[in-house]
Amino acid sequence: MEAQVPTLAIVGHPNAGKSSVVATLTENDRIAIDKRAGTTTRSDEYPVEIDGKAVMRFVDTPGFQNPTDILEWFQQHADEIDLPRAFLNAHTDDRLYSHDCALMRPLADGAGIILVVDGSKRIKEKDRTEMELLRLTGRPRMAILNNLTSNAKHMAAWQDALNKSFNSVREFNAHRATYAERIALLNALKTIDQRWEPMLHETVRAFERDWQRRIDHSVDSILDLLRKALTFKVVKIVKVNELGSDRERESIRQRLNESLQDGLRTLETEAQTEIRTHFKHHVWNVAPDSLLVKDLFSDEVERHLGLNRHQTVLASAAAGAATGGAIDLGVGGLSFGAGTLIGAGVGGVLGVLGTSQLAKLDIQRTLGVERFTLGPVSNPRFPFVLLDRSILYCARAMNWAHGRQAADESAPNRVPDQAPKKQRGFTEALDGEDHKVLAKFFAAARKGKHSPQEQRVREILGSILHDLSTDKIDSRASL
Amino acid sequence: MLSLLRRLAPNRHSARDGKSGHLRWQVPDLIDFDYYVDEDERLLREHPAERRRLAERDRTIYKDRIEPFIGDADAHTRQHRNQALRWWLERRRAQEEPEIAELLPGQAFERAQRLVATAMGLVGLAIGIGAASTLLHYDGDHPVNVSWYLFWLVLFQLILVGTTIGLWYGRRSKLIKGATQDISFLGQVLRPLFSRAARWVQKQRLTHVRPDLRERAKAKRGLMQANYALYGPASYLPVLVPAQVFGIGFNIGVIFMTMALIWFADLGFGWGSAMNIRAETIQGLIRVIALPWSWLLGEGVGLPTLDQIAGTRISLKDPLYVLDAGHLRSWRWFLVLSVLTYGLLPRIALLGLSALKQRRALAALPFTHQSAQAPYARMITPSLETKIIRNGEGPEMPIPAPLKPLSKPTAAPRPPKTDARVEPNLETRSEPRSEPRPEPRPEPRPEPKSEPSDEPRTTTTSAPSAAPHTRSETTPAAPSHPPLAPEPQQSPPAPPSAASKPKPEPKPEPKSTPKPESRPEPLPRPGPSETSNGPSTQPPSAHAALERASATPESEAPPVDRVTVDADACVLLLHIDVADLLAEQDHARLQQLLRSQTGWRVAAAVTYGGGRAMADQTVELISNAIWSAPPARIALIQDGSQPPITENLRFLRSVRAAAGEQAQVLLALIGDPDDDEDDPLPPLSDFDFADWQRKIEQMGDPYLRLVMLAPPDDDDEAA
Question: Full-prediction pTM beyond 0.80?
């Protein structure tokens, strides 16, 4: 039984990116990846378990240290039936071959081969030697062209060379591979050994279901965030006699505003942590110019995410005047020129929200005490901005390869993240009907009510996330 | 009565059907289910990190204890979902401690339901008795008027039953829906009653719980009601059952009281009308009413005869004694049978119908609502995990030890100014095996004269111009080595290798020796003819490379057996990857670069890196070269964009062994050539260079110098 578990040894010469490939394939960013050569010194195993039962196994191996000798030894012992085993037996005590033996061991045990080559570099003599010796092992084998740079000049030559000795050759950027690419790679593994097909089929299905589950969980997290954010308010009670002037009142208002924003930021961070956990990320860094690093209430975020003015008005109107902000915004739209003039004079205290404020301040006076309540957020655009940010975050989490930890982000020729097109928010791209559904959901959430739209909202978000992971929707990598 | 109730509201232990694996949903189950789902949701809200644990728990429950019963084939169907969740509930309950399990809301609800039903039955009984005794009140002056009895206890009840059935079947029409909701006595009165009773039951139970469990048990309270909206009829049917029980109790009370009065008192029954109704009309009516039982208990027993009917007509003017006593009594069984048939039996039928409906409704629950999706998804989604099995730290990349002869004293004495050309390598490299070689060596020594002629050949055109002025800068570098050489070197190379020496030695030797010997004479120089027939293992490209690489040396070096190397020249070892890419004109640049690094000209060039045979040839060449101004000078040029591997280091060791301990060996690295740049000798990235540096340092070879052939900036030229 154990023997039938498809086992794949990831081989290649040192620094070809084997560990990155394993990390990405198994979504494990705890695999130590060191850019220095020869970091992997032992064959660590990475079983994929479904319900505790191993269905396939990857073995990360050290790089070839003596490929020429191995090849020559293979050629001299061509009559051996099991070359890897014979080689292992002959060299097991030789210190100089310790890495080669560690590499050969899984092959001797019947593992298939995934050769990882660095497609950005020219084919070298050593590469040819390795291809040839792997061909001689007679094991099912696939080659991965791991091109971490934008240099694609050698790719065709690699394809040709690899095609001669390998059952399957695939391009796979261990630092950029998306979910869809990982699944495609796993599917391709079926072709290199037919006996593995059922097991791999099951594995791929499990991966797909697992992915769907993560999407569902992320949708849960996002909805939860929206619900919390839309009911969040800050309260401050001040004795009337302590309130000297309107200036103090204004400063209270300022402070409340700050703590409202802080509270919302915290909520967002919590949700992001949750989402990151769903996608099994421990190590992770967002590009410094990403919108995700920017403050939730900054101008850029407001400009790029959420609905445009027109859409907001339509959607909020559909949700009923409950939001109140719809009217503000409607007026703001009509008196646009004047609004901007005034806005410029006052200075954008609430940059995110344009002409309309984030939340309404409510002051209640009772028994010598004034009770200042700011919130919940009444701005009709805010939930869309927040939702867009969350989706953007999911997109980043979904498409952030686990092997990327070692990526040299500063390398001049690394694969650029997708070229920036005209970038809009995710929700802006939805149709009006969906906007209305969302707006209604937000309106209900504001009142803390269960909305009949929730199911539909769930579907909308689920399909956005699903399309993101299958590259049907652009992930706005430049945002 | 109680046993009947138990059967109608079966508890979960009897819920199992005959065929194993099938569990039925009961209303208490729904309540418990909602309770558990709610508990999980709350947990997740408060601790999102628990998601994983919950998923594991539910998946384990499903895999171990549900799937074996219900299978996995029809997952996602209504039936499967229904059963999987029912079993899930069963397993969840089983995980509770028995004492706490008793306190689950569903359990409490079940008990409360029984309690309420019993109470309703008793109340019904009492009211029935009261009603019957009121209606049968007999003062002795006038016979009891059966019309009232029949109207209230038969017709009215029939109307109620009819209404109930009518409402039930018409419940989907809007009109009735609105009406029933408003006047819903069931919902308004019974539901709070249930909740209150259930809470009371829980409270009673709680006092019996062990103190240590009490706190936990308290958490199980609350949430007494299932989410009615989600479960539709299944949720309000349980309220219907006690209503029927009430009706049954009432009718039983009536019958009981009627019988009792008939039994213990002499009742006279009669009928009257102010209108001119004939006894025959009444008889017709009576016959219709008595249809259900008249076949068994005919006229005179089950229903009064025409005479008896006519004889019990009450008229105000007649006193009671005018009427015949037998006639007056003749109605009694008719009344009892009427209540039995039209009061009790329909209620029993309704009770059965309610139970049936409830059962059907429960069995048909789809469980597709949001909160039920979560546990189902957790159960049927296989857990997918990628683990790491660490096999511990392995040995670092092996660094080959220096080859044996190195530390021999013979190697050391060479450098001092013996102006005659020596082959430093002779003894070092081959002393055990290549004895034949040393002999021929002496003769070529007088060859120094060929030196000047060598120069133009190797450096082709650019050499003359480049050589003079570069040499001035780099000469210091070259001389700097000899001074170091004499004393210290003997020990340094040894220590790093000392530990590992015994092992590696046997290996490289057998490998490197047999081949050169078998070959005719690889020694002279890297002529293309020899190399091409030698290493049969080389891929075609290697041959081509060789030819190209050797093009330069060929033109210059005469077909002598040995290369003669001048004092300012070196042997160039060109890696096949580099040689592959060099065009004719690039050689000039290569030599220029080399000269700027070392001040050496190239006396001879040879390619390596294409297999053992090639390596041996190279070593042979070095061994046999005739060096003016020893120690030997060797420059290796290699692509450094791939990190060093043992194989590279071993080759360096064998070069060292061949060239002698103090031979100046220069390893110059180039980067991966970029076609666009048109530069086959690009600089290497600092990162890659550092990688090489580390490994070369580990070799502990003080006479091995590592440089970038073409440094990116002129300043870094460290070794």
Answer: no
